[in-house]
Design brief:
Length: 262
Protein backbone atom coordinates (compact mmCIF):
# COMPACT_ATOMS: atom_id res chain seq x y z
CA UNK A 1 0.00 0.00 0.00
CA UNK A 2 2.82 2.38 0.87
CA UNK A 3 4.60 1.61 -2.39
CA UNK A 4 1.46 2.40 -4.38
CA UNK A 5 1.00 5.69 -2.51
CA UNK A 6 4.61 6.65 -3.12
CA UNK A 7 4.38 5.78 -6.80
CA UNK A 8 1.16 7.81 -7.11
CA UNK A 9 2.84 10.77 -5.39
CA UNK A 10 5.89 10.48 -7.63
CA UNK A 11 3.67 10.36 -10.72
CA UNK A 12 1.81 13.47 -9.54
CA UNK A 13 5.05 15.37 -8.93
CA UNK A 14 6.39 14.35 -12.33
CA UNK A 15 3.17 15.52 -13.99
CA UNK A 16 3.33 18.88 -12.23
CA UNK A 17 6.97 19.35 -13.21
CA UNK A 18 6.17 18.43 -16.81
CA UNK A 19 3.27 20.91 -16.98
CA UNK A 20 5.42 23.65 -15.44
CA UNK A 21 8.22 23.03 -17.94
CA UNK A 22 5.75 22.96 -20.82
CA UNK A 23 4.16 26.21 -19.61
CA UNK A 24 7.56 27.87 -19.16
CA UNK A 25 8.54 26.88 -22.71
CA UNK A 26 5.32 28.33 -24.13
CA UNK A 27 5.81 31.56 -22.15
CA UNK A 28 9.41 31.84 -23.34
CA UNK A 29 8.42 31.27 -26.96
CA UNK A 30 5.69 33.90 -26.74
CA UNK A 31 8.28 36.45 -25.59
CA UNK A 32 10.95 35.36 -28.08
CA UNK A 33 8.77 35.76 -31.17
CA UNK A 34 7.89 39.28 -30.04
CA UNK A 35 11.30 40.43 -31.27
CA UNK A 36 11.07 38.71 -34.63
CA UNK A 37 10.12 40.49 -37.82
CA UNK A 38 6.63 39.18 -38.54
CA UNK A 39 4.11 40.69 -36.15
CA UNK A 40 0.34 40.48 -35.98
CA UNK A 41 -0.36 44.01 -34.78
CA UNK A 42 -3.98 43.95 -35.91
CA UNK A 43 -4.57 40.87 -33.76
CA UNK A 44 -2.95 42.59 -30.79
CA UNK A 45 -5.14 45.69 -31.20
CA UNK A 46 -8.22 43.49 -31.47
CA UNK A 47 -7.25 41.68 -28.28
CA UNK A 48 -6.62 44.99 -26.48
CA UNK A 49 -10.13 46.05 -27.47
CA UNK A 50 -11.65 42.81 -26.21
CA UNK A 51 -9.69 42.76 -22.97
CA UNK A 52 -9.69 46.48 -22.20
CA UNK A 53 -13.01 47.84 -23.42
CA UNK A 54 -14.85 44.62 -22.61
CA UNK A 55 -13.58 44.49 -19.03
CA UNK A 56 -13.92 48.20 -18.28
CA UNK A 57 -17.54 48.32 -17.01
CA UNK A 58 -17.03 45.30 -14.75
CA UNK A 59 -13.84 46.73 -13.25
CA UNK A 60 -15.32 50.18 -12.67
CA UNK A 61 -18.43 48.88 -10.90
CA UNK A 62 -16.46 46.38 -8.83
CA UNK A 63 -13.80 48.88 -7.71
CA UNK A 64 -16.38 51.55 -6.86
CA UNK A 65 -17.94 49.03 -4.48
CA UNK A 66 -14.54 48.00 -3.13
CA UNK A 67 -13.64 51.63 -2.43
CA UNK A 68 -16.90 52.16 -0.58
CA UNK A 69 -16.38 49.04 1.54
CA UNK A 70 -12.81 50.05 2.43
CA UNK A 71 -14.03 53.45 3.64
CA UNK A 72 -16.82 51.93 5.72
CA UNK A 73 -14.45 49.47 7.42
CA UNK A 74 -11.60 51.96 7.89
CA UNK A 75 -13.87 54.68 9.25
CA UNK A 76 -15.36 52.37 11.86
CA UNK A 77 -11.87 51.77 13.23
CA UNK A 78 -10.59 55.35 12.94
CA UNK A 79 -13.73 56.68 14.64
CA UNK A 80 -12.66 55.00 17.88
CA UNK A 81 -9.67 57.33 18.01
CA UNK A 82 -11.36 60.37 16.51
CA UNK A 83 -9.25 60.15 13.33
CA UNK A 84 -11.83 59.68 10.55
CA UNK A 85 -9.80 62.16 8.49
CA UNK A 86 -7.28 59.35 7.90
CA UNK A 87 -9.86 57.48 5.82
CA UNK A 88 -8.58 59.01 2.58
CA UNK A 89 -5.01 57.96 3.38
CA UNK A 90 -6.02 54.37 4.09
CA UNK A 91 -8.13 54.15 0.95
CA UNK A 92 -5.50 55.48 -1.46
CA UNK A 93 -2.69 53.34 -0.03
CA UNK A 94 -4.71 50.12 0.03
CA UNK A 95 -6.06 50.66 -3.47
CA UNK A 96 -2.80 51.71 -5.13
CA UNK A 97 -0.56 49.14 -3.50
CA UNK A 98 -2.75 46.08 -3.26
CA UNK A 99 -6.48 45.94 -3.86
CA UNK A 100 -6.60 47.79 -7.18
CA UNK A 101 -4.04 45.58 -8.98
CA UNK A 102 -5.22 42.31 -7.42
CA UNK A 103 -8.97 42.83 -7.87
CA UNK A 104 -8.47 44.01 -11.44
CA UNK A 105 -6.22 41.05 -12.26
CA UNK A 106 -8.70 38.56 -10.79
CA UNK A 107 -11.58 40.08 -12.74
CA UNK A 108 -9.56 40.00 -15.96
CA UNK A 109 -8.54 36.41 -15.23
CA UNK A 110 -12.16 35.43 -14.74
CA UNK A 111 -13.25 37.09 -17.96
CA UNK A 112 -10.27 36.85 -20.31
CA UNK A 113 -8.05 33.94 -19.22
CA UNK A 114 -11.10 31.72 -19.48
CA UNK A 115 -12.00 33.29 -22.81
CA UNK A 116 -8.51 32.65 -24.20
CA UNK A 117 -8.59 29.03 -23.05
CA UNK A 118 -12.02 28.54 -24.59
CA UNK A 119 -11.14 30.17 -27.90
CA UNK A 120 -7.81 28.40 -28.39
CA UNK A 121 -9.17 25.12 -27.09
CA UNK A 122 -12.02 25.23 -29.60
CA UNK A 123 -9.55 26.02 -32.39
CA UNK A 124 -7.39 23.08 -31.32
CA UNK A 125 -10.33 20.66 -31.18
CA UNK A 126 -11.59 21.73 -34.61
CA UNK A 127 -8.04 21.34 -36.01
CA UNK A 128 -7.69 25.02 -36.95
CA UNK A 129 -4.33 25.14 -35.16
CA UNK A 130 -3.09 22.19 -37.22
CA UNK A 131 -4.29 23.96 -40.36
CA UNK A 132 -2.21 27.01 -39.39
CA UNK A 133 0.88 24.87 -39.04
CA UNK A 134 0.14 23.31 -42.44
CA UNK A 135 0.06 26.80 -43.99
CA UNK A 136 3.40 27.69 -42.40
CA UNK A 137 1.89 29.98 -39.73
CA UNK A 138 3.38 29.79 -36.25
CA UNK A 139 0.45 29.40 -33.77
CA UNK A 140 2.54 30.93 -30.98
CA UNK A 141 3.21 34.08 -33.00
CA UNK A 142 -0.33 34.30 -34.38
CA UNK A 143 -2.40 33.28 -31.36
CA UNK A 144 -0.36 33.57 -28.18
CA UNK A 145 1.96 36.56 -28.53
CA UNK A 146 -0.78 39.10 -29.50
CA UNK A 147 -2.82 38.03 -26.47
CA UNK A 148 0.18 38.25 -24.13
CA UNK A 149 1.25 41.68 -25.37
CA UNK A 150 -2.32 43.00 -25.30
CA UNK A 151 -2.87 41.87 -21.71
CA UNK A 152 0.48 43.19 -20.49
CA UNK A 153 -0.12 46.58 -22.10
CA UNK A 154 -3.78 47.03 -21.20
CA UNK A 155 -3.84 45.74 -17.61
CA UNK A 156 -1.93 48.72 -16.10
CA UNK A 157 -4.45 51.05 -17.77
CA UNK A 158 -7.33 49.03 -16.36
CA UNK A 159 -5.70 49.19 -12.93
CA UNK A 160 -5.39 52.99 -13.19
CA UNK A 161 -9.08 53.30 -14.08
CA UNK A 162 -9.97 50.82 -11.34
CA UNK A 163 -7.98 52.80 -8.76
CA UNK A 164 -9.69 56.02 -9.81
CA UNK A 165 -13.09 54.32 -9.61
CA UNK A 166 -12.28 53.00 -6.14
CA UNK A 167 -11.29 56.46 -4.95
CA UNK A 168 -14.51 57.91 -6.32
CA UNK A 169 -16.55 55.17 -4.64
CA UNK A 170 -14.75 55.76 -1.36
CA UNK A 171 -15.27 59.51 -1.61
CA UNK A 172 -19.01 59.10 -2.24
CA UNK A 173 -19.34 56.99 0.89
CA UNK A 174 -17.07 59.26 2.95
CA UNK A 175 -18.90 62.44 1.94
CA UNK A 176 -22.44 61.12 2.33
CA UNK A 177 -22.08 58.90 5.38
CA UNK A 178 -19.06 60.29 7.24
CA UNK A 179 -19.55 63.94 6.23
CA UNK A 180 -15.92 64.32 5.17
CA UNK A 181 -15.56 67.29 2.83
CA UNK A 182 -14.10 66.88 -0.64
CA UNK A 183 -11.01 69.06 -0.10
CA UNK A 184 -9.93 67.20 3.03
CA UNK A 185 -10.52 63.76 1.50
CA UNK A 186 -8.73 64.29 -1.80
CA UNK A 187 -5.84 66.25 -0.26
CA UNK A 188 -5.06 63.50 2.21
CA UNK A 189 -5.62 60.73 -0.35
CA UNK A 190 -3.12 62.27 -2.78
CA UNK A 191 -0.52 63.39 -0.24
CA UNK A 192 -0.42 59.91 1.31
CA UNK A 193 1.08 58.46 -1.86
CA UNK A 194 4.79 58.31 -2.66
CA UNK A 195 6.73 57.32 -5.76
CA UNK A 196 7.26 53.87 -4.28
CA UNK A 197 3.50 53.36 -3.93
CA UNK A 198 2.98 54.22 -7.60
CA UNK A 199 5.79 51.90 -8.72
CA UNK A 200 4.33 49.06 -6.64
CA UNK A 201 0.84 49.68 -7.94
CA UNK A 202 1.78 49.76 -11.62
CA UNK A 203 4.55 47.17 -11.77
CA UNK A 204 2.32 44.40 -10.44
CA UNK A 205 -0.23 44.49 -13.29
CA UNK A 206 2.55 44.02 -15.87
CA UNK A 207 3.54 40.73 -14.25
CA UNK A 208 -0.09 39.78 -13.56
CA UNK A 209 -1.01 40.40 -17.19
CA UNK A 210 1.77 38.11 -18.39
CA UNK A 211 0.63 35.36 -16.04
CA UNK A 212 -3.04 35.67 -16.99
CA UNK A 213 -2.43 35.59 -20.74
CA UNK A 214 0.18 32.82 -20.78
CA UNK A 215 -1.85 30.58 -18.47
CA UNK A 216 -5.01 31.10 -20.51
CA UNK A 217 -3.22 30.35 -23.79
CA UNK A 218 -1.39 27.36 -22.31
CA UNK A 219 -4.59 25.78 -21.06
CA UNK A 220 -6.26 26.36 -24.42
CA UNK A 221 -3.44 24.90 -26.51
CA UNK A 222 -3.12 21.82 -24.30
CA UNK A 223 -6.76 20.74 -24.43
CA UNK A 224 -7.35 16.99 -24.44
CA UNK A 225 -10.58 15.04 -24.72
CA UNK A 226 -12.56 17.02 -27.29
CA UNK A 227 -15.22 19.56 -26.31
CA UNK A 228 -15.35 18.26 -22.73
CA UNK A 229 -11.66 19.11 -22.46
CA UNK A 230 -12.39 22.69 -23.49
CA UNK A 231 -14.65 23.08 -20.46
CA UNK A 232 -12.01 21.65 -18.14
CA UNK A 233 -9.34 23.91 -19.65
CA UNK A 234 -11.56 26.96 -19.13
CA UNK A 235 -11.99 26.17 -15.44
CA UNK A 236 -8.30 25.41 -14.97
CA UNK A 237 -7.34 28.66 -16.70
CA UNK A 238 -9.21 30.70 -14.11
CA UNK A 239 -8.03 28.63 -11.14
CA UNK A 240 -4.35 28.56 -12.13
CA UNK A 241 -4.25 32.20 -13.26
CA UNK A 242 -5.91 33.39 -10.04
CA UNK A 243 -3.55 31.35 -7.87
CA UNK A 244 -0.60 32.57 -9.92
CA UNK A 245 -1.66 36.18 -9.39
CA UNK A 246 -2.11 35.76 -5.64
CA UNK A 247 1.14 33.87 -5.07
CA UNK A 248 3.11 36.31 -7.23
CA UNK A 249 1.49 39.23 -5.41
CA UNK A 250 2.77 37.91 -2.08
CA UNK A 251 6.39 37.74 -3.22
CA UNK A 252 6.28 40.96 -5.24
CA UNK A 253 4.80 42.88 -2.31
CA UNK A 254 7.53 41.64 0.00
CA UNK A 255 10.26 42.48 -2.50
CA UNK A 256 8.95 45.91 -3.49
CA UNK A 257 8.27 47.00 0.10
CA UNK A 258 11.85 46.05 0.93
CA UNK A 259 13.25 47.88 -2.11
CA UNK A 260 11.38 51.11 -1.39
CA UNK A 261 11.74 50.86 2.41
CA UNK A 262 7.99 51.23 2.92
Amino acid sequence: MNDSNESALAATVKTLIYHFQDYALLAFQSVRVTFETTAYRADMVDQMDQIGVGSLPIIMVALICVGGVIVLNAASQFARFGETSLTGDALSLSLLRELGPVFTALLVAGRNATGMASQLGSMLVTEQVDAMRGLGIDPIRKLVTPRVLATVLILPLLVAIGDASGLVGGFLVASNILSINAEEFWTRAIKALTLGDLVIGFSKPIVFGFIIATVGCYQGLRVEGGTAGVGRATIMAFVVASLGVLVTDLFMTRLLLYVFKL
